[in-house]
């Protein structure tokens, strides 16, 4: 039999340890910041939390063992990241937050040995933070990567980068950037992007502003950035020139899934908070949790969470098999982002007036979660990609039939 | 022909004047407070805006003419309140925000001549603000009014009120309170509430805290309050003793509808912001607004807004006919609150990353709107009431059939 | 005050008489055909029912008074058609079924005096049935009218029509057809359709088959038709040559609304059947109708029905004012068609196993209703039209701003 | 690593063989019955098809090897049943239709050796059909099993059964029944049901009628049955006396999942039919499948199918581990039944007018599918069970906390 959905003992132990760590240490910390979650307490708190996570043996489960991590594959990351995701501060504590976690993943796969020493090692250890500079304000690269406008031009011994980016998560305070810039072709054409590694801060990197997003708890903000003739030496080209779009895919599929894992923790937490609430409170002479309309919301949460997790398991397994898993990751991301939104919304509704107050974490978790249906590809773009592949397959089949029938169409 | 849905000329002119007032004066003001909407700029700004609204001839359209208002009925209030509601600051400027607007409505209907002079006149004129103290923290009166615990006991020449309230909108800084307290019966029994008028501040009224809700733009907060032996003289009993629950209904139906009017303005504004955005921005070589999935969202917004407005028109007409309109107001409130939520959510989604930033007002409008599905009766309570009436009617019919058939069931 | 939603006394009396007629006479008749609704009992039963409807003074409320009808406008038709629509046989009995009702409407507006005598008079009286031959199988005119392929070419004293149609409701047994054929331009170009009146049967009109649709209860089927050199004399051109697309709009808006009226009757009936069921039956020791999840379905039905009716009232009023009402009719049709589907589905679900049996009419009503989201324009086409207008308005405004700013875009 | 979602080679081969069998042999057969699917062609066709399935080596994959099956566990059944389920006739051909498949499963687990020889052997071989007589008309056992009214009373050497059942699938023509009857306790009390094996036909078993359900393609109907003093000897008691409710659970979880498997085949087929349609047809100058609103429906189908399959895989795995899997099977059944309904509905909508005709199988598949949200427990009952467990867990935790805190609640 080949269907097997159990985790090995060491993974289960890491999950349990992470749950304890979050419940006993991180959530109480998070509570201290109710009212202002901005930057999740900042870098000092980050360093403190990461020290504790190292001591607990749960730090950086995704990082290669030789860089201090647990070397877990996607399937095994899932339950650990979910456990860590329960607190908005958890991913920072475990060093599994965006964008660092995705950058660790990508550097592990693409970076040269020297680059690994210089960039991956300190990042995996939590000694620095990082940024991934791809998204651009309109009319540049957003949901449509081929619109990329930032450019790198050849210069002596390296490249000169100019461009305008925004939504660069964690940029403020990052120790280095991975920058996506066009090295050939024109905006609108696909071919010709390259990834560059650039230590920061650097006078050629201007942090224009923190974009004022509805989610606040990320460290280092979502920044608007300008590159002014930023010089990058040849040895800091990540992978091959002009292969940037392909590498972005290497990063994006798994990064999408780790978002799904972390936000699953948030959604589960919200559900539990709400169930606990309705299991305590009465109205109309009955426990709220025994009323049919509340039960309906509870059950729909249960179903949404189970389906999200099942799709996540499937997509991770495909990625672990080395597949591109474009469909599986788009499906899991789109479904989960929407399901979590529903879960958060129902959880608030279940708690009535209390649900929209700071007395419970629900309203602020909802704010943090809202952008997930847009970040990493809006649901509409994923749906479009899924449909294109499905309809494209049908077109191909019809074309083949027509060919066989000798009828040119 | 008796179906007629046009507004008289004077109403249409008030609407147009309100639209200009909001666009030219209030929205630019609101923009100055991006980043911190708390209390909508405070009482000084309120007074300034109300002066301008008076000058524009659009102040207090709902207040009786003899108290400086326009004397509009519910049907005519609808388009004016919608126009005023486009800005979060608009209702304050026009003196049509909660809870003052509902209190003006109720005092006009129930207060004695003396009470009108003392309380209604300054409230209608914007000289003071007011509060309506009904909701209590669990296990008190929330969605279930009969759970009322605050009590008023007889004392020499009046009443002594003790109790614990929360979500008392506008309480901080209010010039007087309308307080709902139990004067007979026990929590869980329906009969026996009375409304009291109490000037504020008063040492017997303790403002425990501003409850930290997700909506920030109300003036005077949503407060937690304790009454400590608050004395209210007999002449400040509003209406009859023990008739409070009935009066609450007088207030609640119309108040529900004016919420629906004001939030309709917000939803229309959000929709227009998003449509403007997709009519400017391109992706994948096409204008966003020409893409099918975006068109679907645009159309669903259009439908949701039209249906909300149509249900509002119907409910207002029923109220103007003097009907209780329990079904009609529950239907309009429930549908609209959920429809507006969908409209806001889609509008954000249509704008992609920009939608979750402060660069557009959408994300903060969504936050302000979220509680509307809970305040003034959660959707679930309205659905329950609607179903109870529908099933109750069927039960009665079945019972009558059985009676006729001579069969005891 | 100009908002008025009451019906005049004579209309209310017609509604009440129609309700009695349906309950006492038509529904028992319908019950005799459970198991095979095909053609609603056929033309003999139609004639019999129409006789009774004439006697009851409720026949053809939409037809001009001079042709034996009640001369009601759209607003007044609404409640009568709803009452008649409760039974699948009701519209046939009242002579207000598709396509005859829409044809009466169009002929009243467009036909010449002679055409009225020859075609409208017997149709309004129920002496003949009619067909409206517009829709074509792919790649002809379907949701996209401009794809029209059937052609009429000039010949001596008239026109010769060739073409292929389907979904021609009521064609089998119709006394005449109104045929839409291209008189200029090419498929894909909008201009150049003409409407023709053609007595039937005629050897040049071939009824290829009854298309096997999921709805069965229409009289005369949904037919596939071929015209083989069908000759139509000049005097049978309806209105002006090449004005067919414009006339189609005259017919389509109101026809859409009368569909919404009739199906509202079906949806209300289904809801009442289901509420009656849950008000009688117990499970888990409780009356079904007192269970929260059932109450939720009841309430959602109530809301969906109210919103559909409110949008219908609005659209009818706009049509009665002589407006094109493209938005209002698209909104009402799209919302109602989807709302009724939800109502039917919930009603079945409320009745559990019994809901999917012939013991209740719900499952067969659902089958009859399903196509309504596709007929008269699929929801997607209406949404597209709504979005196009909304985004188009924004584009125009932006263009005007740009013009004012002196910037060519 | 313990997450593994691949099927062993023999299973994959069985799946492929089943797909070929259905495409090449069964679907063309099904097409011959368009217009009247009743009883799927009857028993003669069943025998013929089963002969072919045996020859193809795909017969009875769920039956024990010693009884001629393939002995597959739940996980391995899933893809085979899905492949077989694509045609309404497929499950009959493979002998994996309800109720026989579930009865084989239950007899394999509970029957005595002698009972296996007498009942399981011929059933597994397709020599007879069977019925499972549990559901009763109101006020008997429906969604609430404890309402069981049919009774078995002790008599010489056995039991005498009286009772009234309905929705007894396949009863007409069944070679034996498994009958659930009360052997102790009262309707409304849980304890005390027993399962009995009864050869059929038998004069004491009256088939009152075929209940006229919207789904037609089952063989042997959904029958209303009365037992009149039916004698069952002791050796035909299935398992232990008074353990019937427990055994029902043994049957119901897996039976629910095999429904999910088979209907998944139907949903996938419908989706493919619709995608093929939109990949061929143009409107408004574009291929339907390239229009955004159609792409949205395609993508939502893809997501719904993937999530249904993922939840199914999870539930089957739990069952294979020997767990009760009450949550997992309720989640998978509820989600899938609703998701398939959405898939069918969207598939019809994608095909426009053609979608509601017999020219495509969609409308009739939708009819067959509709009851699945009710049969085997309506969605509402599953949601209620899920919520009860979730809230119950929270209550228990709160109680434990209170205990620890020394506070009696």
Automatic annotation (TrEMBL), chains A, B, C, D:
Keywords: FAD, Flavoprotein, Oxidoreductase
InterPro entries documented for this protein: Acyl-CoA_dehydrogenase, Acyl-CoA_DH_CS, Acyl-CoA_Oxase/DH_mid-dom, Acyl-CoA_Oxase/DH_mid-dom_sf, AcylCo_DH-like_C, AcylCo_DH/oxidase_C, AcylCoA_DH/ox_N, AcylCoA_DH/ox_N_sf
Keyword Flavoprotein applies: yes
Protein's recorded name: Acyl-CoA dehydrogenase family protein
Entries under PROSITE patterns matching the protein: ACYL_COA_DH_2
UniProt record similarity statement: Belongs to the acyl-CoA dehydrogenase family.
Self-association and partners: Homodimer.
Acyl-CoA dehydrogenase/oxidase N-terminal domain mapped to chain residues: 16-127
Annotated GO biological process: fatty acid beta-oxidation using acyl-CoA dehydrogenase
The keyword Magnesium is assigned to this record: no
Gene3D superfamilies assigned: Acyl-CoA dehydrogenase/oxidase, N-terminal domain, Butyryl-CoA Dehydrogenase, subunit A, domain 2, Butyryl-CoA Dehydrogenase, subunit A, domain 3
Cellular component aspect of the GO annotation: cytoplasm
Superkingdom to which the source organism belongs: Bacteria
Cofactor(s) the record lists: FAD
Residues of the Acyl-CoA oxidase/dehydrogenase middle domain: 131-229
Pfam families linked to this entry: Acyl-CoA_dh_1, Acyl-CoA_dh_M, Acyl-CoA_dh_N
Domain Acyl-CoA dehydrogenase/oxidase C-terminal: residue ranges: 242-390
GO molecular function: acyl-CoA dehydrogenase activity; flavin adenine dinucleotide binding
């Amino acid at each position: 039999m080949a269907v097997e959905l159990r985790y090995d003992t060491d993974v289960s132990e890491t999950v349990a340890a992470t749950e304890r760590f979050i419940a006993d240490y991180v959530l109480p910390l998070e509570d201290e910041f109710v009212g202002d979650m901005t930057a999740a307490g900042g870098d000092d708190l980050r360093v403190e939390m990461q020290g504790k996570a190292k001591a607990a043996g749960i730090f950086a489960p995704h990082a290669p063992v030789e860089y201090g991590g647990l070397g877990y594959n996607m399937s095994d990351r899932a339950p650990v990241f979910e456990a860590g995701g329960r607190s908005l501060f958890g991913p920072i504590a475990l060093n599994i937050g965006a964008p660092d976690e995705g950058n660790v993943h990508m550097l592990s796969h693409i970076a040269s040995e020297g680059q690994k020493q210089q960039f991956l090692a300190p990042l995996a250890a939590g000694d620095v933070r990082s940024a991934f500079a791809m998204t651009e304000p309109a009319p540049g690269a957003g949901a449509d990567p081929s619109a990329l406008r930032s450019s790198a031009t050849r210069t002596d011994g390296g490249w000169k980068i100019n461009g305008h980016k925004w939504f660069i998560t964690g940029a403020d305070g990052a120790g280095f950037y991975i920058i996506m810039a066009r090295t050939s072709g024109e905006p609108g054409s696909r071919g010709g992007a390259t990834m560059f590694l650039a230590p920061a801060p650097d006078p050629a990197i201007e942090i224009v502003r923190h974009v004022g997003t509805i989610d606040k708890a990320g460290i280092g903000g979502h920044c608007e950035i300008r590159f002014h003739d930023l010089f990058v030496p040849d040895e800091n080209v990540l992978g091959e020139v002009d292969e940037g779009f392909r590498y972005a895919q290497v990063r994006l599929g798994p990064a999408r899934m780790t978002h799904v894992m972390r936000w699953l923790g948030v959604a589960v937490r919200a559900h539990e908070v709400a169930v606990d609430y309705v299991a305590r409170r009465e109205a109309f002479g009955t426990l709220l949790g025994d009323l049919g309309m509340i039960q309906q919301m509870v059950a729909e949460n249960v179903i949404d969470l189970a389906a999200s997790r099942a799709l996540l398991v499937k997509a991770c397994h495909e990625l672990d098999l080395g597949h591109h898993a474009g469909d599986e990751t788009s499906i899991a991301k789109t479904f989960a982002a929407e399901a979590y939104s529903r879960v958060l919304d129902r959880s608030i509704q279940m708690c009535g007036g209390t649900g929209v107050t700071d007395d419970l974490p629900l309203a602020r978790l909802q704010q943090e979660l809202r952008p997930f249906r847009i970040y990493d590809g809006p649901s509409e773009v994923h749906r479009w990609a899924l449909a294109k592949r499905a309809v494209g397959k049908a077109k191909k089949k019809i074309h083949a039939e027509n060919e066989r029938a000798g009828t040119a169409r």
